[in-house]
Amino acid sequence: IYDFSLGNPSIEPPSAINEAIMESVKEKDVHAYMNNSGFDEVKKAIAQSLNKRFATHFCSKNIIMCSGAAGGLNVVLKSILNEEEEVIVFIPYFMEYRNYIHNYQGKVIEVACEKNFEPNMLDLENKITSKTKAIIINNPNNPSGIVYNENVIKKITNILKKKEKEYNQAIYLIADEPYREIVYDNNKVPYLTKYYNDTIVVYSYSKSLSIPGERIGYIVVPEKTDDFKNLIQAMSIATRILGFVNAPSLLQKVVLKCVDTVVDMTEYEKNRDILYNGLKECGYECIKPQGAFYLFLKSPIKDEQEFCKLAKKYNILMVPGSSFAYPGYVRLAFCTDTQMIRKAILKFKELFEEINKKPYI
Ligand code: PLP
């Protein structure tokens, strides 16, 4: 089976992680309840690490530990959303956002994209209303694999600033960043708190440390964010009532010891090159991924679900673009075995040839 369906990291966690787990488990009170927002020394270490990397000025009170990005996004949305308020997402997008927003009776508002998958700025401007509470930006992006550069971020934040003034209310920019560390070819992922005051960052160690099953991440709320004190209080309570109750203590202690550790991404880059070059040689159309570990492929036939069905005949598994609100494309996760990708290219070639023999539209 040539399985390109799931975004489950294929690279083993760095050995420092397993060592930190073994060490942390011996510590006093590691299994106890704690302050809902997390251990203070862990939050402090994260704040210091961010300050060093991004020239920010955070301290422990700006950080809330959470159960991965999924937990973090739910904590943020629970804290800011009232019924019927709107949250803007950029097509194509991680469809779980719909479920998270609906959890708090919010409304999903989709913004169209350009051919290169950057958001259509005019559509963004038109979709912001007095009901807009937040906008979610996922950078690097799942499923398109693109990185929104500084220029794109400035265009987005300028629109948000203008609309905040127009409606005289805060519009929160939620930066969903589980793929922040996975970037290729020297692309830079801007740190959004620098560009816009009402930014809330949701980070996860699922991909950067290859530990998605362990459920650990954090939320950053800068002091200049609108209603900072209430937000922090609401988020601390949200972690208590949404059902997960504080981020896992053992993994918080691991983060403290490995705060600047990341997995070696060279294998993903190699996989990206093999897959991208191989597919282009077969005749497929796609944009070279700049970050994350997904390649968004234009379906050679109009109905991408039909394309996925045909691919199954060759034992190739992919996710249809309609699962990301963008039909006509398919997503391939290349966080998988390199040899498997090499072999799969031969199958993609046969698949392309079969399609070109028949009158598909
Ligand atoms: N956001 C995006 C865009 C994702 O792709 C994922 C997981 O794949 C998540 C959030 C959730 O990640 P986590 O494991 O940190 O909850």
Instruction: Characterize the largest beta sheet: strand count, sense, and whether it forms a barrel.
Output: 7 strands, mixed
Q: H/E element string?
A: EHHEHEHEHEHEEEHHHEEHEEEH
Question: Which kinds of small molecule does this entry bind, naming each only once?
Answer: pyridoxal-5'-phosphate
Q: For the terminal residues, how far apart are their CA atoms?
A: 27 Å
Estimate the mean pLDDT confidence: 97
Which geometry do the CA atoms define?
globular
- Widest sheet: strand order? 2-8-7-6-5-3-4
Low-confidence stretches: none
Number of strands: 13
- What structural class results from the helix and strand content? alpha/beta
Number of helices: 11
- Strand-residue proportion: 5-15%
Explain what this protein looks like in three dimensions.
With 361 residues, the chain is an alpha/beta fold. It has helices at 15-24, 40-54, 68-80, 96-103, 121-127, 150-167, 228-241, 249-257, 266-282, 304-312, 338-357; strands at 2-3, 63-66, 86-90, 107-111, 132-138, 172-176, 199-204, 217-220, 285-286, 294-298, 316-317, 319-320, 329-333. Helix 3 (68-80) packs parallel to helix 4 (96-103) and helix 3 (68-80) packs across helix 7. The longest helix is centred in the last third of the chain and has 20 residues, at 338-357. The two termini are 27 Å apart. Bound molecules: pyridoxal-5'-phosphate (PLP). The site of pyridoxal-5'-phosphate (PLP) has 13 residues, from helix 3.
